Amino acid sequence: MDVQLLxxxxxxxxQAVAYKALIDTGAQSAPALASAIGExxxxxxxxxxxxxxxxxxxxxxxGGKFKYAATSPVALDQLVKQQAEAVRQKExxxxxxxxxxxxxxxAHSEQPGIRFYQGEEGLREMFxxxxxxxxxxxxxxxxxxxxxxxxxEAHRLRNLFPAKGIVxxxxxxxxxxxxxxxxxxxxxxxxxxxxxxxxxWINAEDYDEPVEWVAYGDKLAIISFxxxxxxxxxxxxxxxxxxxxxxxxxxxxxxxxxxxxxLPKHGLYTRVxxxxxxxxxx
Length: 282
Description:
By secondary structure, the chain is an alpha+beta fold. The chain has three domains: 3-73, Arc Repressor Mutant, subunit A; 77-109; 110-280, Endonuclease Chain A (Endonuclease, Chain A, 2-Layer Sandwich), CATH 3.30.870.10. 49% of the residues lie in helices and 22% in strands. It is built from twelve helices and eleven strands. The chain has helices at residues 3-9, 13-25, 30-37, 41-53, 75-107, 119-130, 143-149, 151-158, 160-163, 188-195, 237-255, 274-280, and strands at 57-62, 65-70, 113-118, 137-140, 168-174, 185-187, 197-203, 211-216, 219-225, 229-235, 269-271. A seven-stranded mixed β-sheet has the order 3-10-9-8-4-5-7, with helices on both faces. A two-stranded antiparallel ribbon has the order 1-2. Helix 1 (3-9) packs across helix 2, helix 2 (13-25) crosses helix 3 and helix 3 (30-37) crosses helix 4 (41-53). The mean pLDDT is 90.
Protein backbone atom coordinates (compact mmCIF):
# COMPACT_ATOMS: atom_id res chain seq x y z
CA MET A 1 0.00 0.00 0.00
CA ASP A 2 1.30 3.45 -0.98
CA VAL A 3 1.72 5.47 2.21
CA GLN A 4 2.30 8.66 0.21
CA LEU A 5 -1.08 8.20 -1.48
CA LEU A 6 -2.75 8.01 1.91
CA UNK A 7 -1.00 11.23 2.93
CA UNK A 8 -2.06 12.93 -0.30
CA UNK A 9 -5.67 11.95 0.38
CA UNK A 10 -5.61 13.51 3.83
CA UNK A 11 -4.02 11.27 6.46
CA UNK A 12 -1.02 12.43 8.41
CA UNK A 13 2.17 10.48 7.81
CA UNK A 14 1.95 8.61 11.11
CA GLN A 15 -1.73 7.81 10.53
CA ALA A 16 -0.92 6.42 7.08
CA VAL A 17 1.92 4.29 8.50
CA ALA A 18 -0.30 3.00 11.32
CA TYR A 19 -3.15 2.12 8.93
CA LYS A 20 -0.80 0.21 6.62
CA ALA A 21 0.69 -1.59 9.63
CA LEU A 22 -2.77 -2.66 10.81
CA ILE A 23 -3.49 -4.12 7.38
CA ASP A 24 -0.11 -5.86 7.23
CA THR A 25 -0.15 -7.37 10.74
CA GLY A 26 -3.84 -7.74 11.49
CA ALA A 27 -5.52 -6.66 14.74
CA GLN A 28 -3.11 -5.20 17.28
CA SER A 29 -3.22 -3.66 20.71
CA ALA A 30 -2.26 0.00 20.91
CA PRO A 31 1.04 -0.71 22.72
CA ALA A 32 2.02 -3.39 20.18
CA LEU A 33 1.25 -1.21 17.18
CA ALA A 34 2.99 1.81 18.76
CA SER A 35 6.12 -0.29 19.19
CA ALA A 36 5.91 -1.55 15.61
CA ILE A 37 5.78 1.94 14.12
CA GLY A 38 8.21 3.57 16.54
CA GLU A 39 5.74 5.70 18.50
CA UNK A 40 5.13 6.02 22.24
CA UNK A 41 2.27 4.11 23.85
CA UNK A 42 0.38 7.39 24.45
CA UNK A 43 0.71 8.42 20.80
CA UNK A 44 -0.29 4.93 19.72
CA UNK A 45 -3.67 5.28 21.44
CA UNK A 46 -4.19 8.75 19.96
CA UNK A 47 -3.33 7.62 16.44
CA UNK A 48 -5.55 4.55 16.57
CA UNK A 49 -8.49 6.44 18.09
CA UNK A 50 -8.18 8.94 15.25
CA UNK A 51 -8.27 6.11 12.69
CA UNK A 52 -11.40 4.78 14.42
CA UNK A 53 -12.92 8.27 14.26
CA UNK A 54 -12.49 8.51 10.50
CA UNK A 55 -13.68 4.97 9.89
CA UNK A 56 -10.39 3.30 8.96
CA UNK A 57 -10.18 1.13 12.08
CA UNK A 58 -12.42 -0.53 14.63
CA UNK A 59 -11.77 -1.09 18.34
CA UNK A 60 -12.61 -4.61 19.51
CA UNK A 61 -12.60 -6.21 22.97
CA UNK A 62 -10.37 -9.29 23.15
CA GLY A 63 -9.57 -11.19 26.35
CA GLY A 64 -10.28 -8.23 28.58
CA LYS A 65 -8.15 -5.98 26.44
CA PHE A 66 -8.77 -3.89 23.34
CA LYS A 67 -7.34 -4.46 19.92
CA TYR A 68 -7.58 -2.38 16.79
CA ALA A 69 -8.26 -3.74 13.31
CA ALA A 70 -8.13 -2.02 9.95
CA THR A 71 -11.34 -1.50 7.97
CA SER A 72 -11.80 -1.15 4.21
CA PRO A 73 -10.17 1.89 2.55
CA VAL A 74 -13.62 2.66 1.16
CA ALA A 75 -13.95 4.86 4.25
CA LEU A 76 -11.46 7.21 2.61
CA ASP A 77 -14.22 8.33 0.25
CA GLN A 78 -16.20 9.74 3.16
CA LEU A 79 -13.07 11.38 4.55
CA VAL A 80 -12.46 13.20 1.26
CA LYS A 81 -16.10 14.33 1.13
CA GLN A 82 -15.84 15.71 4.66
CA GLN A 83 -12.67 17.56 3.74
CA ALA A 84 -14.34 19.01 0.64
CA GLU A 85 -17.32 20.21 2.69
CA ALA A 86 -14.95 21.79 5.22
CA VAL A 87 -13.25 23.67 2.37
CA ARG A 88 -16.64 24.84 1.03
CA GLN A 89 -17.59 26.12 4.49
CA LYS A 90 -14.32 28.03 4.74
CA GLU A 91 -14.88 29.47 1.27
CA UNK A 92 -18.42 30.59 2.15
CA UNK A 93 -17.19 32.21 5.34
CA UNK A 94 -14.33 33.90 3.52
CA UNK A 95 -16.70 35.31 0.89
CA UNK A 96 -18.82 36.73 3.70
CA UNK A 97 -15.99 38.14 5.77
CA UNK A 98 -13.51 39.17 3.07
CA UNK A 99 -15.10 42.60 2.46
CA UNK A 100 -14.69 43.36 6.18
CA UNK A 101 -11.09 42.13 6.13
CA UNK A 102 -10.36 44.31 3.09
CA UNK A 103 -12.04 47.26 4.83
CA UNK A 104 -9.78 46.76 7.84
CA UNK A 105 -6.72 46.47 5.65
CA UNK A 106 -7.60 49.59 3.67
CA ALA A 107 -8.20 51.57 6.85
CA HIS A 108 -4.65 50.79 7.98
CA SER A 109 -2.86 50.95 4.65
CA GLU A 110 -2.46 53.45 1.84
CA GLN A 111 -2.34 50.64 -0.69
CA PRO A 112 -5.71 49.88 -2.32
CA GLY A 113 -7.34 46.51 -1.77
CA ILE A 114 -8.20 44.72 -4.99
CA ARG A 115 -10.62 41.84 -5.54
CA PHE A 116 -11.20 39.92 -8.74
CA TYR A 117 -14.43 38.23 -9.78
CA GLN A 118 -15.27 35.78 -12.55
CA GLY A 119 -18.38 34.04 -13.82
CA GLU A 120 -22.04 34.48 -13.05
CA GLU A 121 -21.84 34.10 -9.28
CA GLY A 122 -18.88 36.44 -9.04
CA LEU A 123 -20.69 39.07 -11.08
CA ARG A 124 -23.81 38.86 -8.92
CA GLU A 125 -21.65 39.19 -5.82
CA MET A 126 -20.33 42.48 -7.23
CA PHE A 127 -23.90 43.80 -7.46
CA UNK A 128 -24.78 42.56 -3.99
CA UNK A 129 -21.67 44.28 -2.62
CA UNK A 130 -22.94 47.59 -4.00
CA UNK A 131 -26.12 47.23 -1.93
CA UNK A 132 -24.43 46.51 1.41
CA UNK A 133 -23.89 50.16 2.25
CA UNK A 134 -26.05 53.25 2.03
CA UNK A 135 -23.74 55.39 -0.09
CA UNK A 136 -24.98 56.72 -3.45
CA UNK A 137 -23.89 54.73 -6.48
CA UNK A 138 -22.39 56.38 -9.57
CA UNK A 139 -22.16 54.31 -12.73
CA UNK A 140 -21.58 54.39 -16.47
CA UNK A 141 -23.69 51.67 -17.97
CA UNK A 142 -22.62 49.15 -20.54
CA UNK A 143 -25.39 47.84 -22.77
CA UNK A 144 -23.67 44.47 -22.63
CA UNK A 145 -24.75 44.10 -19.01
CA UNK A 146 -28.40 43.82 -20.02
CA UNK A 147 -27.58 41.47 -22.87
CA UNK A 148 -25.49 39.32 -20.57
CA UNK A 149 -28.01 38.97 -17.76
CA UNK A 150 -31.18 39.11 -19.82
CA UNK A 151 -33.97 41.59 -19.20
CA UNK A 152 -35.56 39.68 -16.33
CA GLU A 153 -32.41 39.22 -14.24
CA ALA A 154 -31.10 42.71 -15.03
CA HIS A 155 -34.42 44.14 -13.83
CA ARG A 156 -34.21 42.12 -10.59
CA LEU A 157 -30.68 43.35 -9.87
CA ARG A 158 -31.63 46.99 -10.52
CA ASN A 159 -34.45 46.72 -8.01
CA LEU A 160 -32.07 45.70 -5.21
CA PHE A 161 -31.02 49.34 -4.87
CA PRO A 162 -34.35 51.10 -4.22
CA ALA A 163 -35.31 48.25 -1.89
CA LYS A 164 -32.33 49.29 0.27
CA GLY A 165 -32.99 53.03 -0.16
CA ILE A 166 -29.82 53.52 -2.24
CA VAL A 167 -29.79 56.48 -4.63
CA UNK A 168 -28.07 55.97 -7.97
CA UNK A 169 -26.64 58.31 -10.58
CA UNK A 170 -26.13 56.80 -14.01
CA UNK A 171 -24.89 57.77 -17.46
CA UNK A 172 -27.18 55.66 -19.60
CA UNK A 173 -27.61 55.07 -23.35
CA UNK A 174 -30.85 56.14 -25.00
CA UNK A 175 -31.96 52.83 -26.50
CA UNK A 176 -35.28 51.19 -27.24
CA UNK A 177 -36.69 49.55 -24.12
CA UNK A 178 -37.07 45.76 -24.03
CA UNK A 179 -40.39 44.43 -25.13
CA UNK A 180 -42.88 44.12 -22.33
CA UNK A 181 -46.60 43.83 -21.89
CA UNK A 182 -48.33 47.23 -21.83
CA UNK A 183 -49.36 46.74 -18.22
CA UNK A 184 -45.70 46.09 -17.29
CA UNK A 185 -44.43 49.40 -18.72
CA UNK A 186 -44.44 52.94 -17.44
CA UNK A 187 -42.85 56.29 -18.41
CA UNK A 188 -39.16 56.21 -17.60
CA UNK A 189 -39.27 59.50 -15.65
CA UNK A 190 -42.00 58.14 -13.40
CA UNK A 191 -40.11 54.88 -12.89
CA UNK A 192 -36.86 56.68 -12.06
CA UNK A 193 -38.50 58.44 -9.11
CA UNK A 194 -39.50 55.07 -7.65
CA UNK A 195 -36.13 53.56 -8.45
CA UNK A 196 -34.21 56.47 -6.83
CA UNK A 197 -32.36 56.76 -10.16
CA UNK A 198 -30.97 59.99 -11.61
CA UNK A 199 -30.27 59.45 -15.30
CA UNK A 200 -27.97 61.34 -17.57
CA TRP A 201 -28.82 60.38 -21.14
CA ILE A 202 -26.31 59.77 -23.90
CA ASN A 203 -26.82 58.56 -27.45
CA ALA A 204 -26.42 54.85 -28.00
CA GLU A 205 -23.21 55.32 -30.01
CA ASP A 206 -21.60 57.67 -27.48
CA TYR A 207 -20.46 54.80 -25.30
CA ASP A 208 -20.75 51.27 -26.66
CA GLU A 209 -17.81 49.61 -24.92
CA PRO A 210 -18.53 46.32 -23.09
CA VAL A 211 -17.20 47.75 -19.82
CA GLU A 212 -19.26 49.09 -16.92
CA TRP A 213 -17.92 51.44 -14.23
CA VAL A 214 -19.44 51.75 -10.75
CA ALA A 215 -18.31 53.85 -7.78
CA TYR A 216 -19.84 53.29 -4.34
CA GLY A 217 -18.48 54.20 -0.95
CA ASP A 218 -14.70 53.81 -1.09
CA LYS A 219 -14.81 51.31 -3.98
CA LEU A 220 -14.61 51.41 -7.75
CA ALA A 221 -15.94 48.38 -9.63
CA ILE A 222 -15.01 47.66 -13.25
CA ILE A 223 -16.94 44.95 -15.08
CA SER A 224 -15.77 43.69 -18.47
CA PHE A 225 -18.35 41.80 -20.54
CA UNK A 226 -16.00 40.04 -22.94
CA UNK A 227 -15.92 36.42 -24.00
CA UNK A 228 -15.28 35.76 -20.33
CA UNK A 229 -16.99 38.08 -17.86
CA UNK A 230 -14.51 39.54 -15.39
CA UNK A 231 -14.84 42.10 -12.64
CA UNK A 232 -12.43 44.04 -10.48
CA UNK A 233 -13.22 45.98 -7.31
CA UNK A 234 -10.61 48.48 -6.14
CA UNK A 235 -11.08 49.62 -2.58
CA UNK A 236 -9.48 53.04 -2.28
CA UNK A 237 -11.12 56.24 -1.07
CA UNK A 238 -8.81 58.25 -3.31
CA UNK A 239 -9.66 56.28 -6.45
CA UNK A 240 -13.41 56.18 -5.75
CA UNK A 241 -13.46 59.93 -5.04
CA UNK A 242 -11.52 60.64 -8.23
CA UNK A 243 -14.03 58.66 -10.29
CA UNK A 244 -16.96 60.54 -8.76
CA UNK A 245 -15.31 63.85 -9.65
CA UNK A 246 -14.73 62.65 -13.21
CA UNK A 247 -18.34 61.51 -13.32
CA UNK A 248 -19.50 64.98 -12.25
CA UNK A 249 -17.38 66.65 -14.94
CA UNK A 250 -18.67 64.24 -17.58
CA UNK A 251 -22.24 64.64 -16.39
CA UNK A 252 -22.13 68.44 -16.63
CA UNK A 253 -20.52 68.29 -20.08
CA UNK A 254 -23.20 65.94 -21.37
CA UNK A 255 -26.04 68.05 -20.03
CA UNK A 256 -24.50 71.16 -21.65
CA UNK A 257 -24.89 69.69 -25.13
CA UNK A 258 -27.21 71.74 -27.38
CA UNK A 259 -29.69 68.93 -28.00
CA UNK A 260 -29.59 67.29 -24.58
CA UNK A 261 -33.13 68.45 -23.74
CA UNK A 262 -34.44 66.34 -26.63
CA LEU A 263 -33.35 63.11 -24.94
CA PRO A 264 -34.60 60.50 -24.52
CA LYS A 265 -35.91 59.77 -27.98
CA HIS A 266 -36.04 55.98 -27.63
CA GLY A 267 -35.96 55.08 -23.94
CA LEU A 268 -39.30 56.68 -23.15
CA TYR A 269 -40.66 53.67 -21.28
CA THR A 270 -39.22 51.07 -18.98
CA ARG A 271 -40.40 48.14 -16.93
CA VAL A 272 -42.51 48.82 -13.89
CA UNK A 273 -40.41 48.67 -10.70
CA UNK A 274 -40.94 45.53 -8.64
CA UNK A 275 -42.34 47.56 -5.73
CA UNK A 276 -44.96 49.08 -8.04
CA UNK A 277 -45.81 45.74 -9.65
CA UNK A 278 -46.52 44.23 -6.25
CA UNK A 279 -48.96 47.02 -5.49
CA UNK A 280 -50.63 46.40 -8.83
CA UNK A 281 -50.68 42.67 -8.22
CA UNK A 282 -48.73 41.92 -11.39
